[in-house]
Specification:
By secondary structure, the protein is α+β, with helices and mostly antiparallel strands. It contains ten helices and 14 strands. The chain has helices spanning about 5-15, 60-75, 95-110, 160-170, 180-190, 195-200, 215-225, 240-245, 250-260, 275-280, and strands spanning about 20-25, 30, 40-50, 80-90, 115-125, 125-135, 150-155, 205-210, 230-235, 265-270, 290-295, 300-305, 310-315, 315-320. Bound molecules: adenosine-5'-diphosphate (ADP) and magnesium ion. Adenosine-5'-diphosphate (ADP) binds next to helix 1, strand 4 and strand 5.
């Protein structure tokens, strides 16, 4: 199989068409029409085998995830997805693997009316870089820098599931035979980008970020950009049924606070906008949970139900009440 046969495999499977694609795969560059009155939102993310996904991950799931992590960035800006490019590096011309990968990519792309408009195919260690393009009306993008003291902090969905799934996969290659374990591994391999929720928060959320590196790390980015701090109520962090079934409290808290790869949204709302914003985002998939508040003191602090501070230690959690 040659490079061009592989491109044809991808092209045939990712055939979604859009009116705003003047020229897609097949020429030296794609030609695309950005609607008047909209800003173009562009984001890119690379996945490397053994670093960003276990080398054993099914091709379909790798294709899904490569797009999902990128769509999550558009979601965090409140942007509507439109186009993507795909730079794919393969150790050898494995047509069957590429077909599975393209099917996973295309399945998620179809859910978001996203067209694959170009890319590059090269030989080397397995990895891929996806660039996504979306639109957001002028003045409506969700930025990291708008959180204000007194705002409430929310997250969509549940926290820590993907990191829990990774731990299970690493413990045992056939961990997925048990239903709760399977649910967590599914969250690792096929994250759901919160695109509709991000759009619903346009003009409402004061700041927003997607959780790729873990709640503490990503909320810290929001706080730094906004010149504020945050207090998190650890007992308020949303947990899935599968997480509750398989992980005890201490371990669960670590996964929920610092586990990466969930691709949930973390956002802030002015108190007066909470009711309307939650009602709007409730109609768009995963619900949202209030997990804390924005404060003047820099940094992210974590409190338990009794208001005692906790701080992450190297190997777990340390109380300093
Ligand atoms: P060039 O040599 O001009 O850079 P290529 O031979 O790399 O073009 O690619 C031929 C066409 O196929 C281009 O339109 C390119 O965008 C597209 N393409 C190549 N690889 C991929 C891929 N992995 N996914 C989608 N489109 C691709
Ligand atoms: Mg090329």
């Amino acid at each position: 199989v040659a490079e061009f046969d592989l491109i044809d495999v991808i092209r045939a499977r990712c055939a979604l068409a859009r009116d705003d694609v003047h020229t897609g795969i097949g020429d030296d560059a794609a030609l695309l029409a950005v609607p008047a009155g909209q800003l173009l939102a562009v984001s890119t993310d690379t996945l490397i085998a053994g670093v960003h996904f276990p080398a054993s991950t099914a091709a379909f799931d790798v294709g899904w995830k490569a797009l999902a992590v990128n769509l999550s960035d558009l979601a965090a800006m409140g942007a509507s997805p439109a186009w993507a490019t795909l730079a794919l590096t393969l150790p050898h011309a494995d047509e069957q693997w590429v077909a599975g990968f393209a099917d996973g990519f295309a399945t998620l792309a179809g859910q978001h009316d996203l067209a694959l408009v170009g890319g590059d195919t090269t030989q080397g260690p397995l990895g891929m870089t996806v660039t996504v393009h979306g639109f957001v009306p002028h003045g409506m993008a969700l930025l990291r820098r708008g959180a204000r003291v007194g705002d409430q902090v929310f997250v969509t969905g549940t926290l820590g599931d993907a990191a829990a799934g990774l731990r299970l996969v690493q413990q045992s290659p056939d961990a997925g035979s048990q239903p709760s374990a399977r649910a967590l591994i599914e969250r690792l391999n096929r994250p759901t980008p919160r695109v509709a929720q991000g759009r619903a928060l346009r003009g409402r959320a004061t700041a927003c970020i997607d959780i790729s590196d873990g709640l503490l790390a990503d909320l810290t980015h929001v706080c730094t950009a906004s010149g504020v701090g945050a207090e998190i109520d650890i007992d308020a962090l949303p947990a899935s049924a599968a997480m509750l079934a398989l992980f005890a409290l201490d371990e669960r808290r670590i996964l929920q606070l610092s586990g990466g790869d969930d691709y949930e949204l973390c956002f802030t709302l002015n108190e007066s906008d909470v009711a309307a914003a939650l009602q709007e985002s409730a109609g768009s998939g995963a619900g949202a949970t209030r997990i804390g508040r924005i404060v003047a003191e820099p940094g992210v602090s974590v409190r338990d139900r009794d208001g005692r501070s906790m701080t992450p230690a190297r190997l777990g959690w340390e109380h300093f009440a």
